[in-house]
Amino acid sequence: MAEDTLVRNNVQIQGSGTTSMIFAHGFGCDQNMWRFVAPAFVEDYQTILFDHVGSGKSDASAYNPIRYGNLTGYALDLIEICESLGLRNTVFVGHSVGAMIGILASIQRPELFNQLVLIGPSPRYLNDLPEYIGGFERSDLEGLFDLMDKNYFGWAGYLAPVVMGNLERPELAAELEESFCKVNPDIARQFAEATFFADNREDLPKVTTPSLILQSTDDIIAPLEVGAYVYHHIPDSTLQIMEATGHCPHMSYPEETIRLIQEYLASRSSASTRPLEQGLV
Questions:
Q1: 130-153 pLDDT, tens per residue?
Q2: Domain holding 141: CATH number?
Q3: Count of the separate structural domains present in the chain
Q4: Which segments constitute the AB hydrolase-1 domain (predicted)?
Protein backbone atom coordinates (compact mmCIF):
# COMPACT_ATOMS: atom_id res chain seq x y z
CA MET A 1 0.00 0.00 0.00
CA ALA A 2 2.74 2.46 0.97
CA GLU A 3 4.80 1.68 -2.12
CA ASP A 4 1.71 1.97 -4.32
CA THR A 5 0.98 5.42 -2.89
CA LEU A 6 4.51 6.66 -3.47
CA VAL A 7 4.48 5.41 -7.07
CA ARG A 8 0.97 6.71 -7.69
CA ASN A 9 1.98 10.25 -6.77
CA ASN A 10 5.59 10.05 -7.99
CA VAL A 11 6.90 10.95 -4.54
CA GLN A 12 10.49 12.22 -4.50
CA ILE A 13 12.47 12.67 -1.26
CA GLN A 14 15.69 14.59 -0.64
CA GLY A 15 17.55 15.81 2.43
CA SER A 16 17.95 14.27 5.84
CA GLY A 17 16.48 16.82 8.24
CA THR A 18 14.43 15.67 11.20
CA THR A 19 11.44 17.72 10.00
CA SER A 20 9.75 17.02 6.67
CA MET A 21 8.64 19.74 4.27
CA ILE A 22 6.01 18.73 1.73
CA PHE A 23 5.48 20.72 -1.49
CA ALA A 24 2.14 20.57 -3.34
CA HIS A 25 1.85 22.09 -6.81
CA GLY A 26 -1.12 23.87 -8.32
CA PHE A 27 -3.51 23.17 -11.21
CA GLY A 28 -1.92 22.19 -14.50
CA CYS A 29 1.56 21.97 -12.99
CA ASP A 30 3.83 19.32 -11.49
CA GLN A 31 6.52 19.07 -8.85
CA ASN A 32 9.15 20.46 -11.24
CA MET A 33 7.67 23.92 -10.59
CA TRP A 34 9.33 23.82 -7.14
CA ARG A 35 12.86 23.42 -8.52
CA PHE A 36 13.80 27.02 -7.68
CA VAL A 37 12.52 26.84 -4.09
CA ALA A 38 12.77 23.32 -2.68
CA PRO A 39 16.59 22.97 -2.93
CA ALA A 40 16.98 25.89 -0.50
CA PHE A 41 15.51 23.71 2.26
CA VAL A 42 17.30 20.41 1.61
CA GLU A 43 20.05 21.03 4.18
CA ASP A 44 17.62 21.64 7.05
CA TYR A 45 14.61 19.53 6.09
CA GLN A 46 13.63 16.30 4.46
CA THR A 47 11.91 17.68 1.35
CA ILE A 48 9.07 15.72 -0.20
CA LEU A 49 7.71 16.51 -3.64
CA PHE A 50 4.87 14.76 -5.43
CA ASP A 51 2.53 15.04 -8.40
CA HIS A 52 -1.23 15.11 -8.11
CA VAL A 53 -2.75 12.12 -9.88
CA GLY A 54 -3.10 13.01 -13.55
CA SER A 55 -0.21 15.48 -13.41
CA GLY A 56 3.51 15.15 -14.08
CA LYS A 57 4.85 11.62 -13.74
CA SER A 58 2.06 10.36 -11.50
CA ASP A 59 0.36 7.07 -12.33
CA ALA A 60 -2.39 8.25 -14.68
CA SER A 61 -4.05 4.82 -14.49
CA ALA A 62 -4.86 5.62 -10.84
CA TYR A 63 -7.09 8.51 -11.89
CA ASN A 64 -10.68 7.96 -10.76
CA PRO A 65 -13.19 10.64 -11.80
CA ILE A 66 -15.32 9.94 -8.74
CA ARG A 67 -12.46 10.21 -6.22
CA TYR A 68 -11.07 13.30 -7.92
CA GLY A 69 -14.38 14.94 -8.70
CA ASN A 70 -13.68 17.39 -5.88
CA LEU A 71 -10.67 18.44 -3.82
CA THR A 72 -11.25 15.95 -1.02
CA GLY A 73 -9.81 13.15 -3.16
CA TYR A 74 -6.58 15.08 -3.59
CA ALA A 75 -6.49 15.84 0.13
CA LEU A 76 -6.84 12.13 0.82
CA ASP A 77 -3.83 11.49 -1.42
CA LEU A 78 -1.79 13.94 0.64
CA ILE A 79 -2.84 12.21 3.86
CA GLU A 80 -1.95 8.82 2.41
CA ILE A 81 1.49 10.08 1.38
CA CYS A 82 2.12 11.24 4.94
CA GLU A 83 0.90 7.93 6.34
CA SER A 84 3.02 5.90 3.91
CA LEU A 85 6.14 7.78 5.00
CA GLY A 86 5.20 7.81 8.70
CA LEU A 87 5.19 11.60 8.83
CA ARG A 88 3.93 13.86 11.60
CA ASN A 89 4.31 17.59 12.33
CA THR A 90 5.39 18.46 8.81
CA VAL A 91 5.79 21.84 7.16
CA PHE A 92 3.39 21.96 4.24
CA VAL A 93 4.00 24.34 1.31
CA GLY A 94 1.17 24.52 -1.21
CA HIS A 95 0.54 26.67 -4.25
CA SER A 96 -2.91 27.79 -5.41
CA VAL A 97 -5.31 24.81 -5.34
CA GLY A 98 -2.46 22.82 -3.79
CA ALA A 99 -2.73 25.19 -0.82
CA MET A 100 -6.44 24.45 -0.48
CA ILE A 101 -5.75 20.73 -0.70
CA GLY A 102 -3.32 21.13 2.20
CA ILE A 103 -5.91 23.07 4.18
CA LEU A 104 -8.47 20.28 3.75
CA ALA A 105 -5.92 17.62 4.73
CA SER A 106 -4.91 19.61 7.82
CA ILE A 107 -8.51 19.87 8.98
CA GLN A 108 -8.98 16.14 8.67
CA ARG A 109 -5.60 15.16 10.15
CA PRO A 110 -4.11 18.13 12.04
CA GLU A 111 -1.38 16.02 13.67
CA LEU A 112 0.28 15.61 10.29
CA PHE A 113 1.04 19.32 9.93
CA ASN A 114 2.93 21.77 12.13
CA GLN A 115 2.83 24.77 9.78
CA LEU A 116 1.07 25.57 6.53
CA VAL A 117 2.62 27.86 3.92
CA LEU A 118 -0.12 28.88 1.50
CA ILE A 119 0.98 30.57 -1.73
CA GLY A 120 -1.85 32.30 -3.57
CA PRO A 121 -4.66 30.31 -1.91
CA SER A 122 -8.29 30.89 -2.87
CA PRO A 123 -11.27 29.25 -1.18
CA ARG A 124 -13.63 30.53 -3.87
CA TYR A 125 -12.77 31.88 -7.33
CA LEU A 126 -16.29 33.08 -8.09
CA ASN A 127 -17.50 36.46 -6.87
CA ASP A 128 -20.30 36.38 -4.31
CA LEU A 129 -21.05 40.07 -4.13
CA PRO A 130 -21.24 42.13 -2.08
CA GLU A 131 -19.83 39.91 0.67
CA TYR A 132 -17.03 38.23 -1.25
CA ILE A 133 -14.70 39.09 -4.13
CA GLY A 134 -13.18 35.98 -5.71
CA GLY A 135 -12.05 37.60 -8.94
CA PHE A 136 -14.32 35.89 -11.50
CA GLU A 137 -17.90 35.91 -12.65
CA ARG A 138 -19.45 32.58 -13.58
CA SER A 139 -19.63 33.69 -17.21
CA ASP A 140 -15.85 34.25 -17.17
CA LEU A 141 -15.16 30.69 -16.05
CA GLU A 142 -17.77 29.17 -18.35
CA GLY A 143 -16.08 30.96 -21.23
CA LEU A 144 -12.73 29.45 -20.23
CA PHE A 145 -14.26 25.98 -20.01
CA ASP A 146 -15.89 26.43 -23.40
CA LEU A 147 -12.52 27.33 -24.92
CA MET A 148 -10.98 24.37 -23.11
CA ASP A 149 -13.52 22.03 -24.72
CA LYS A 150 -13.19 23.47 -28.23
CA ASN A 151 -9.46 24.15 -28.41
CA TYR A 152 -7.45 22.78 -25.50
CA PHE A 153 -4.08 24.00 -26.75
CA GLY A 154 -5.53 27.41 -27.54
CA TRP A 155 -6.90 27.52 -24.00
CA ALA A 156 -3.44 26.69 -22.62
CA GLY A 157 -1.85 29.41 -24.73
CA TYR A 158 -4.38 31.96 -23.53
CA LEU A 159 -4.44 31.07 -19.83
CA ALA A 160 -0.72 30.59 -19.15
CA PRO A 161 0.34 34.26 -19.49
CA VAL A 162 -2.77 35.35 -17.56
CA VAL A 163 -1.84 33.09 -14.65
CA MET A 164 1.88 33.79 -14.72
CA GLY A 165 1.79 37.54 -15.25
CA ASN A 166 5.27 39.07 -15.64
CA LEU A 167 4.71 39.53 -19.37
CA GLU A 168 8.21 40.94 -19.74
CA ARG A 169 9.47 37.40 -19.05
CA PRO A 170 7.61 35.34 -21.67
CA GLU A 171 9.70 32.25 -20.96
CA LEU A 172 7.80 31.79 -17.69
CA ALA A 173 4.41 31.71 -19.42
CA ALA A 174 5.85 29.42 -22.10
CA GLU A 175 6.88 26.90 -19.45
CA LEU A 176 3.46 27.02 -17.82
CA GLU A 177 1.75 26.61 -21.17
CA GLU A 178 3.90 23.55 -21.90
CA SER A 179 2.96 22.14 -18.50
CA PHE A 180 -0.75 22.64 -19.21
CA CYS A 181 -0.40 20.88 -22.55
CA LYS A 182 1.16 17.79 -20.96
CA VAL A 183 -1.96 17.06 -18.90
CA ASN A 184 -4.63 14.80 -20.36
CA PRO A 185 -7.38 17.23 -21.47
CA ASP A 186 -10.16 15.18 -19.85
CA ILE A 187 -8.34 15.08 -16.52
CA ALA A 188 -7.44 18.76 -16.76
CA ARG A 189 -11.08 19.60 -17.45
CA GLN A 190 -12.34 17.80 -14.35
CA PHE A 191 -9.54 19.16 -12.15
CA ALA A 192 -10.36 22.65 -13.41
CA GLU A 193 -14.01 22.23 -12.42
CA ALA A 194 -13.02 20.86 -9.00
CA THR A 195 -10.72 23.85 -8.56
CA PHE A 196 -12.56 26.84 -9.97
CA PHE A 197 -16.10 25.94 -8.89
CA ALA A 198 -15.14 24.89 -5.36
CA ASP A 199 -16.34 26.85 -2.37
CA ASN A 200 -14.21 26.15 0.71
CA ARG A 201 -14.91 29.37 2.59
CA GLU A 202 -16.61 27.54 5.45
CA ASP A 203 -13.54 25.33 5.88
CA LEU A 204 -11.13 28.16 6.69
CA PRO A 205 -12.18 28.68 10.35
CA LYS A 206 -11.69 24.94 10.95
CA VAL A 207 -7.93 25.20 10.37
CA THR A 208 -5.99 24.71 13.61
CA THR A 209 -2.49 24.69 12.08
CA PRO A 210 -0.51 27.96 12.15
CA SER A 211 -0.47 29.33 8.60
CA LEU A 212 1.52 31.75 6.47
CA ILE A 213 -0.33 33.27 3.51
CA LEU A 214 1.92 34.55 0.74
CA GLN A 215 -0.03 36.96 -1.44
CA SER A 216 1.37 38.45 -4.65
CA THR A 217 0.78 42.16 -5.19
CA ASP A 218 -0.81 41.74 -8.63
CA ASP A 219 -2.45 38.34 -8.96
CA ILE A 220 -5.44 38.13 -11.28
CA ILE A 221 -6.23 34.55 -10.19
CA ALA A 222 -6.21 35.23 -6.44
CA PRO A 223 -6.46 39.02 -5.96
CA LEU A 224 -5.54 40.91 -2.80
CA GLU A 225 -9.12 40.72 -1.50
CA VAL A 226 -8.88 36.92 -1.50
CA GLY A 227 -5.64 36.90 0.46
CA ALA A 228 -7.17 39.23 3.02
CA TYR A 229 -10.26 37.02 3.28
CA VAL A 230 -8.17 33.90 3.90
CA TYR A 231 -6.15 35.76 6.53
CA HIS A 232 -9.23 36.98 8.39
CA HIS A 233 -10.85 33.53 8.42
CA ILE A 234 -7.96 31.22 9.29
CA PRO A 235 -7.11 31.42 13.00
CA ASP A 236 -3.42 31.91 13.85
CA SER A 237 -2.54 33.00 10.34
CA THR A 238 -0.02 35.53 9.04
CA LEU A 239 -0.50 37.46 5.80
CA GLN A 240 2.57 38.58 3.86
CA ILE A 241 2.04 40.81 0.84
CA MET A 242 4.88 40.09 -1.56
CA GLU A 243 6.71 42.37 -3.93
CA ALA A 244 6.21 39.54 -6.40
CA THR A 245 3.53 39.81 -9.08
CA GLY A 246 1.57 37.09 -10.84
CA HIS A 247 0.14 33.86 -9.51
CA CYS A 248 3.35 31.81 -9.42
CA PRO A 249 5.89 33.67 -7.26
CA HIS A 250 7.76 30.43 -6.52
CA MET A 251 8.72 30.47 -10.21
CA SER A 252 8.97 34.19 -10.94
CA TYR A 253 10.32 35.40 -7.58
CA PRO A 254 11.86 32.34 -5.92
CA GLU A 255 14.35 34.31 -3.80
CA GLU A 256 11.61 36.34 -2.12
CA THR A 257 9.48 33.23 -1.70
CA ILE A 258 12.35 31.36 -0.01
CA ARG A 259 13.20 34.30 2.25
CA LEU A 260 9.65 34.80 3.47
CA ILE A 261 9.17 31.09 4.21
CA GLN A 262 12.47 30.96 6.10
CA GLU A 263 11.65 34.08 8.11
CA TYR A 264 8.22 32.73 9.04
CA LEU A 265 9.54 29.32 10.12
CA ALA A 266 12.29 30.98 12.14
CA SER A 267 9.76 33.23 13.87
CA ARG A 268 7.52 30.27 14.71
CA SER A 269 10.48 28.34 16.09
CA SER A 270 11.50 31.32 18.21
CA ALA A 271 7.96 31.79 19.49
CA SER A 272 7.66 28.13 20.47
CA THR A 273 10.83 28.24 22.58
CA ARG A 274 10.25 31.62 24.21
CA PRO A 275 8.04 30.42 27.11
CA LEU A 276 10.62 27.79 28.08
CA GLU A 277 13.42 30.33 27.98
CA GLN A 278 11.43 32.71 30.14
CA GLY A 279 10.74 29.94 32.61
CA LEU A 280 14.43 29.26 33.02
CA VAL A 281 15.27 32.88 33.85
A1: 999 999 999 999 999 999 999 999
A2: 3.40.50.1820
A3: 1
A4: 21-251
